């Protein structure tokens, strides 16, 4: 693991444990075993570190999801794989997901360029637009549909974390809640 990766890993755990404001950069550098000046070489400000970590995690999650949906043909199968992969990623990467939750509820979100946010959402928005155009999905604004999907997935994730089901029961809940979501959208 290189220095930048060690800094990101240390920051991830400290931010989740102590929050953004209660985690000084000196503590992150110390936890990573790196000089404080080296941290600022990679990330000129703490804000840069926070946003870089968020973008890194978003990209990792997007890559994992893309791998799961690449061989799916129908809109239903693509949406189901997307939903399932998103929830499984969140359950397998609890610390990363908690950081992303913190970030999305913080002022840091406004520091991400609108085009970066749009780039992350665009593949799913395109799927939804195609589904609406082909009359598979109800004719609603795709941003509203995306909000419903992400809110639904977030709530289901919270439910699964709280219940701490074994994997077969998690899979059953994920399938059931996807079916409910699909019925609502179609």
UniProtKB/TrEMBL annotation:
InterPro entries: Homeodomain-like_sf (IPR009057), HTH-type_TetR-like_transc_reg (IPR050109), HTH_TetR (IPR001647), Tet_transcr_reg_TetR-rel_C_sf (IPR036271), TetR-like_HI_0893_C (IPR054422). Keywords: DNA-binding. It holds the Pfam family TetR_HI_0893_C. Residues 1-61 form the HTH tetR-type domain. It comes from the Bacteria. GO terms for molecular function: DNA binding. The keyword Translocase does not apply. Residues 24-43 bind DNA. This is TetR/AcrR family transcriptional regulator. It comes from Adhaeribacter swui.
């Amino acid at each position: 693991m290189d220095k930048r990766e060690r800094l990101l890993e240390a920051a991830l755990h400290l931010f989740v444990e102590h929050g953004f404001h209660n985690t000084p950069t000196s503590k992150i550098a110390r936890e990573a075993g790196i000089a404080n000046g080296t941290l600022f070489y990679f990330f000129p400000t703490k804000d840069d570190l926070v946003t870089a970590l968020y973008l890194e995690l978003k990209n990792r999650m997007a890559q994992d999801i893309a791998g799961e949906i690449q061989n799916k043909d129908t809109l239903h199968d693509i949406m189901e794989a997307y939903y399932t992969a998103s929830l499984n990623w969140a359950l397998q990467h609890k610390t990363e997901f908690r950081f992303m939750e913190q970030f999305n509820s913080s002022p840091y979100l406004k520091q991400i360029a609108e085009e970066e946010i749009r780039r992350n959402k665009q593949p799913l928005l395109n799927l939804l637009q195609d589904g609406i155009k082909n009359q598979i999905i109800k004719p609603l604004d795709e941003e509203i549909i995306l909000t419903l999907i992400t809110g639904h997935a977030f709530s289901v994730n919270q439910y699964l974390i709280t219940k701490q089901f074994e994997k077969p029961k998690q899979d059953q809940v994920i399938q059931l809640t996807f079916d409910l979501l699909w019925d609502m959208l179609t």
